[in-house]
């Protein structure tokens, strides 16, 4: 029997923390702790080493983005899912760039939350293409000088093609079917992309693709 996935909950809303704790305490999960602000989240994450952190963006003191960056820098094995109210959180893009593996709406169904934690825990990125486009569109509306320069020169033409399709939300199976390649070959290309671009997961590849102009929300 596999050990339960340990989840840390970081949100400044007491009721939401309690609700998530009830939902996740059992049935393959264990709550490693709860935090009411970013500083507590960092402290607990580095002490308890959970598998996944559910991280609110807007919290008093240290915000969720800063906390994400500090946790990932200290222990990249800890996966982080950004919790967002969607229309209010304009910095979710920065959270993904800081090292989060995806994001979820706070009002998502319980089964979606549970599935998301399992997806991220096994090392995959949690990216809903429609939501990603809307979040990224806020970033692309900013002046170009505020964006991080990205060098794609080391990539082959095939790798650039795969990067674009990843940014459009394609899974490995979908990539294989579209490009007439085996899933194992796709995985090799994705691993090469991660290595060449210094990305930790597919979420970061999506960010890089938008920053480099490989794909845009309008497309």
Automatic annotation (TrEMBL):
Modified residues (4-aspartylphosphate): 56
InterPro entries: CheY-like_superfamily, NreC/VraR/RcsB-like_REC, Sig_transdc_resp-reg_C-effctor, Sig_transdc_resp-reg_receiver, Tscrpt_reg_LuxR_C, WalR-like
SMART domains: HTH_LUXR (SM00421), REC (SM00448)
Annotated keywords: DNA-binding, Phosphoprotein, Transcription, Transcription regulation
Domain of life where this protein originates: Bacteria
Protein name: Response regulator transcription factor
Domain HTH luxR-type stretches: 148-213
Keyword Phosphoprotein appears in the UniProt entry: yes
SUPFAM superfamilies hit by this protein: C-terminal effector domain of the bipartite response regulators, CheY-like
Alphabetical list of PANTHER family matching this protein: TRANSCRIPTIONAL REGULATORY PROTEIN NARL-RELATED, TWO-COMPONENT RESPONSE REGULATOR
Organism: Actinocorallia longicatena
Tagged with keyword Transcription regulation: yes
Response regulatory domain location: 6-121
């Amino acid at each position: 029997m596999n050990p339960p996935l340990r989840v840390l909950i970081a949100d400044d809303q007491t009721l939401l923390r309690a609700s998530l704790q009830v939902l996740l305490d059992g049935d393959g999960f264990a709550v490693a702790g709860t935090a009411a602000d970013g500083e507590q989240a960092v402290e607990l994450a580095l002490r308890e080493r959970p598998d996944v952190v559910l991280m609110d963006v807007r919290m008093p003191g240290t915000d969720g983005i800063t906390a994400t960056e500090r946790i990932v820098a200290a222990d990249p094995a800890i996966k982080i899912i950004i919790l967002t109210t969607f229309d209010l959180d304009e910095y979710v893009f920065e959270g993904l760039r800081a090292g989060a593996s995806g994001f979820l709406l706070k009002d998502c169904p319980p089964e979606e939350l549970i599935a998301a934690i399992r997806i991220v825990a096994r090392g995959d990125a949690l990216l809903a293409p429609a939501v990603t486009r809307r979040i990224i569109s806020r970033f692309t509306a900013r002046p170009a000088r505020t964006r991080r320069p990205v060098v794609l020169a080391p990539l082959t033409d095939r790798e650039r093609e795969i990067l674009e399709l990843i940014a459009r939300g394609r899974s490995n199976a979908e990539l294989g079917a579209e490009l007439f390649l085996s899933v194992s070959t796709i995985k090799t290309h994705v691993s090469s992309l991660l290595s060449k671009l210094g990305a930790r997961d597919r979420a970061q590849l999506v960010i890089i693709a938008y920053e480099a102009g490989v794909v845009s929300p309008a497309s």
